[in-house]
Write a structure and sequence with these properties.
The complex is a heterodimer. Chain A is mainly α. Chain A contains one helix and no strands. The chains are: A mainly alpha, B mainly alpha.
Chain lengths: ~50, ~525
């Protein structure tokens, strides 16, 4: 196997693995952040006393 | 087995339909959170890092990205992964240093042309807005076609009859919920799409890997027709003229275009401007390295899988039919990947994957439509025609979305692409990128950058138009027989930079303006 093949296959493997980790880490946290964001938008659109 | 055989069944259509219907419901629901223009365009600047990262990925991991990356994987094999390396490297540098993006977010503008007015003059803002929309609409012009090619190929529908109807249907769907909900609905759908598409991409990659097998991968990467070294300009693929080589000129051009786009492409920049703080903007770039690597690398792998399948694997008996169809232009090289997936992924799962891809299509479209129409309202209509209230601005933005949608449909139906899809994207992007790079970078870091320099720099981007195939042919016939589109792209960047430097030195501003970080933030909606 040539050096280029090794480089590209390693890059693909690392990318796939880190993407799975990212999905797990970001997914759940992002849903919680979305709830916060919507709450803030709702609060800011309500009339102030 | 024939070329158009597919595992896609009515069950898969139902899965896609349920997904699309839920998007419409979200669009209607999100409308209640839109209170003012800031909510509509940048979700009130409330995004935190994880949500911003999910939504940035949702936007930038579009079906068009999947299609052009898979096309490159099919035609240029693993050598095309050099683009992932360039993009990942550029993101790491921007994320680590905060160059440009930190100061841009600090300036509190809603759009990049708004920064032009803050730093230079109102006329620069209007010209910058026009250039941005021109390049952006041209750049988006083939998204619809690529999305429709994916759907027709994967579902086995005849392309000739259904392509136009699918293009129209997809566009209407995106227009519906973008017009209604603005950035709030974009953020919500982007998050769902990030999750659906992310899982879908992993599943597809595993199927492709199992289809090739480790032994097959080792064998095929050792084959004489496998393109691995991007520095080598000759492409040994069996696709002949349909598979372009790479080489040093192409790598240089792509490095310039991609690095600029990472910092200043408007759809990405709108996320920079939507986050809570400049620090979050910088972090967003650093963490985006992974999804940006994945958005190119994984589809390249699928495209490579298609090449293996049709030329060395179980579909090798279809290779002659495929080559003939590609030569006759009845099937494009973009369709190879969906034709391949349609044969290796089982029904049911194929519907989920297709829903993920349609999600990818919509997440890019909605953000881009919102971005360009926001620029039309904020940076072209409002500065030229005087003060507008919030309600008028939202109305004009919505009308802008509809007009741009109609233009996209016309362009998608009319324009015949020569060369590969990514090449087209890079060239049309240059019209904007070549001008914006000196105007923003010099504006942020060079006190002597002047209004005249900014005008010349923006106009210099127009040179990029000659990088499209008709322009290159014209140049080859009249002036330079050996010129390539890569030369024209680099020339556009050089002309814009020269315009900024010469314009600023020869025609300095009458009063010295401070660099952007010291400028008082503009009032939203003024």
């Amino acid at each position: 196997m040539s050096i280029w093949a090794i480089i590209w296959l390693s890059l693909l493997g690392l990318t796939g693995l880190s993407f799975v980790i990212l999905l797990l880490v970001v997914g759940g946290g992002a849903v919680a952040e979305l709830k916060q964001t919507l709450q803030e938008l709702r609060d800011s659109s309500e009339p102030q006393d | 087995m024939t070329l158009t055989d597919t595992n896609f069944t009515n069950l898969d259509w139902m899965i896609v339909a349920v997904y699309l219907s839920s998007s419409i419901v979200i669009g209607i629901w999100a409308n209640r959170y839109v209170g003012n223009l800031s909510d509509y365009l940048v979700a009130g600047r409330t995004l935190r890092i994880r949500l911003a990262l999910a939504t940035m990925t949702g936007t930038e991991l579009g079906l068009v990205t999947v299609m052009y990356s898979a096309e490159l994987g099919f035609t240029q094999h693993f050598a095309s992964l050099y683009l992932s390396v360039i993009e990942g490297g550029a993101l790491l540098i921007v994320g680590a240093t905060g160059i440009v993006v930190f100061k841009l977010r600090q300036s509190m503008v809603l759009t990049i042309p708004e920064y032009y007015e803050q730093r230079y003059a109102r006329g620069v803002r209007v010209l910058g807005g026009i250039m941005m929309v021109l390049a952006g609409v041209l750049n988006m012009g083939l998204f619809l076609k690529a999305g429709s090619e994916f759907l027709t190929s994967i579902s086995g529908l005849p392309e000739g009859i259904y392509l136009k109807w699918i293009m129209t249907g997809l566009l209407l769907l995106v227009l519906f919920y973008t017009v209604l909900g603005g950035m709030v609905s974009v953020v919500i759908t982007d998050l769902i799409q990030f999750l659906v598409l992310g899982v879908g991409m992993i599943i597809v990659s595993l199927y492709v890997l199992s289809s090739i097998g480790i032994d097959g991968l080792t064998a095929v990467t050792g084959g004489a027709d496998c393109y691995l070294n991007p520095l080598q300009a000759k492409n040994p693929s069996l696709l002949g003229d349909k598979s372009q080589g790479i080489g040093l000129l192409t790598i240089t051009v792509q490095a310039v275009v991609i690095s600029t786009a990472i910092m200043l492409w408007p759809a990405g920049a709108s996320r920079t401007l939507s986050v809570k703080s400049p620090e979050t903007a910088q972090k967003l770039y650093l963490y985006s390295t992974i999804p940006f690597l994945a958005r190119r690398a994984l589809p390249v792998f699928w495209g490579f899988g298609a090449y293996y399948f049709f030329f060395s694997g179980p579909g090798a008996h279809l290779s002659d039919a495929l080559l003939e169809a590609i030569d006759n232009d009845t099937i494009s090289t973009r369709s190879a990947m969906p034709l391949f997936l349609a044969k290796i992924i089982p029904s049911g799962l194929l519907g989920l994957v297709t829903a993920g891809m349609v999600a990818a299509f919509m997440s890019t479209h909605d953000s881009y439509l919102l971005c360009w129409s926001g620029v039309v309202t904020q940076d072209i209509i409002a500065p030229v025609f005087g003060p507008l209230n919030q309600r008028q601005r939202i109305l004009i933005t919505r009308i802008g979305i509809l007009i741009i949608g109609a233009l996209l449909l016309i362009w998608g139906l009319w324009y015949e692409l020569e060369g590969n899809l990514w090449g087209y994207m890079a060239i049309t992007g240059t019209i904007y990128l070549a001008g914006v790079l000196p105007v923003v970078v010099c504006g942020l870091y060079w006190k002597r950058a002047s209004v005249t320099g900014a005008y010349l720099s923006l106009l210099g981007g127009l040179v990029g138009i000659f990088g499209l195939e008709p322009g290159v042919r014209l140049l080859q016939r009249t002036l330079l027989p050996d010129v390539e589109s890569g030369h024209v792209t680099l020339l556009a960047f050089a002309v814009s930079l020269a315009g900024m430097l010469l314009g600023s030195l020869l025609f300095p501003d009458s009063r010295q303006r401070p660099p952007a970080a010291a400028v008082v933030p503009s009032q939203e909606g003024t």
